[in-house]
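Q: Sequence in, structure out?
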Amino acid sequence: MSRYNILPAERITLKNNKTVLVRELEGRDKDCLFKYLQLLSGESRSRFGPHPFDWPAVMAIFDQPDNTITRYIAASETENIVVAYMLIKQGMIEADQQRYAQRKQFFDKDKTCTFAPSVADGWQSTGLGTAMATYIEKELQERGINKIILWGGVQASNLKAINFYKKRGYQFIASFWHDEKDNYDMIKELS
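A: Exactly. Output:
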């Protein structure tokens, strides 16, 4: 689905002893991705905003792919379902770029990417988010990326996500108001 496909799929055993296959999204995943998005709880949906959760959005992902975005999934091998979905965009989305520019913060689009992770509600706190982020960061380093910015920031009320990002080495940059909520911009420097 993207012009990058450096790393092969990786089989990962999680804290709950379930096994997932982490890989890039493929054409055969259309129905599974749609089902994944439909099964996210209202709270999870309210915290993930790169695109709508409807069938037209899923169709556009597959029929009109954006070659600046690489999409990854984790699929449960025993249940044959998508249990996590993460996006990496080369450079920054326009709203993030404008917000950072207002603070006089500018980044090299060839060395910066934007990250939007989601993990199915029943699979959170299993180590899946960490395993997928590690897998993705390996690929980003191979591509010469040295900064990861959170796509649209993270909601200040999402303490679970904020703690996850801090453990992964993300640094708080600033807070901002969006959709009547306080949000944080956070960045990770890759070495």
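Residues 128-142 form the longest helix (15 residues).
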